[in-house]
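Quick question about two entries, pasted in order.
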Amino acid sequence: MESNWRFVFVNFSIIAPLILFGYFQEIVTQSNILLINEEKEVLIRWESMITYTFFCFVTITTTCFIINIFAGNKSRLLIPSISSDHVAASFLMTSALILTNLSLEYVPYAAKILIKSCRPIPVFLATLFVSKERHAILKIFSVILLLIGILVYMRDESGAFNNSALFGNTMLFISICLDGLAAVFFERIRKNFEEKDDKRNFLVNTLELVTSVNLIAIFFCIPALFINNDVIKAVNFISLQPEITIPILTSTFTYALGQIAIGASYLQFGTLSTSMAQTLRIMITLLGTVYLFHDPFSHLQMIGTSFMLLGILCNFAQSFRTKNIVESSHQNGVWGKCLGKKSGLEDLESLPLVDSDYSSDTGTSTLY
């Protein structure tokens, strides 16, 4: 039961900050300045999304250091552990985030979050075929329901697909593919934590992972700042409209909190369950815009949303079910040893299609 509550808490910690992040990020991307030059009006928009991505990485790393100091582990994070898996995951994550943020210059925010809601699909395929992870049948069914829901949602009442900017959609498609590849390396990092039999606090493990990946991402992002003078445009825009610093700082800070929760979810529950939680956040954001801003919501979109919700619920149901089986089998294993019987954990290993998302919660896990 305690582990189930931990699952709920971690998912809430992902969803709540990232909803706020989406709101404040929209304020940043929609900011503009009207300049009058030689009797000619020029509208300047915020277009420095690479610099904005750099701000995100710096804020995440700084937030991790601050939390670590207050947690009394100041000496631990001074030298984060960095491996080839950290570097690969960081490079893929950085590329995906830059492409995602750049796409906002070509597609509206609603289109961006809708396409990003497909993230569990490449994550599922990458962990299945590249990492050779085995997923429960209900997990596979949940991904299929999610795919059906997204396809239905993206169709309007006439049956034609919405024609968003091709370039922006292409960047988003590449970004979710990179997310799927990054999931492979995050799974390797999670398994390394398990194999180390590490007795440290779970918060320290999470902060170490998030700090390592984002610290590397800062160095990957620095050369990109000078592409098309992105950082210079950002400085000029902020100097002309200094009040934009408030939504920038607020959005990057809420994003940092969400990323720390995502790191905790990666280590505790795996990448597929984490991507499902992010998709749930996207759905809440979409429904929130419909309610708050009275955006149109067709019958097909309602049906698509229902399929997506059903897929997410199936994923969470399987996660809770697997968790209870593991805990029950662990208890039975202890009594089995006392009675000279076969351990419950040994019985569990013979079950088909064990949910890989909870493989870290077996008796050998020390991530708590």
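Here is the second entry:
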Amino acid sequence: MAVTAPPGAGTPADCTYWATGQASSGDYPRKTNSLYRYTPAMDEQPQPIPLPWGSSQKPVHVVAGPNGDAIWVGTENPPQICRYDTALRSWTQRYISSWGAPRQMMLGADGNLWVATSKGISRFRTDKSITELPGPSLPNGGDALGLWVDQHGKCVWYTNPANASIGQYPIPDDPESALGETRFVSQLVTETAPGQLTGVSGVVQYVSKGLPIPGVPLTCRVRSDGGTTFSDGTTETLVTTDARGQAALPALRGGREEDKVVLAVGLGDSESPTTVSLRVRSES
């Protein structure tokens, strides 16, 4: 269960209590899976909040953001981290890349959400994009049930139910604080025609200390005097690196003829973007 306290809350009855409810057929049967919200001063009964995938999605654990703006739910079927915006009353969600079933979750001193799963430990940013960050690499078959992040944010402790043991691992660097760089792996488009829609325009990789880093949000921009844009008409977008630290760049739509359209990709303002160029030429 998680608790949020609105401004001016004077008693426990003014707070809001959040709990997961799983379908069951025991002494207290419940027909559906759901997140529940209960404010004693306002509600006679807990109020169900449907999960993003409906009643088939199984909630496992819930934690609340420190200022009450978001509630985090780990789910099975599918294995996801779901963020509930308490003001907008809407969901965003992200799959757990290892496809491990979530168990215990907690907000660490590093400001990130830590999740024990059946396939190790995962770490996520608490922003609306729920970006997944590198987590500790557990031994093959690593299974985590409970976890605790130390108050200094230096290591994470976990319990392994498979061999009834306790493990400790150092917390890997946050890719945004690491001295990394974005590199072009391949440029797939070197020329296009006015109005033509290309395929994937290229592939980049984010590397830090010689290792590819997954879960890094890279900013991709089109610099064009002739109106060349991404396929959706924008000139700026975000792409996130996959398990290999790579990200495919969006398709482009050619504008007017010009000799040099620049595609620039980088990690926010923390590095100088890496660039490639292409031409827009009329078909003859």
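Reply: The chain is about 0% helix and 45% strand. The chain has a mean pLDDT of 87. Hope that helps.
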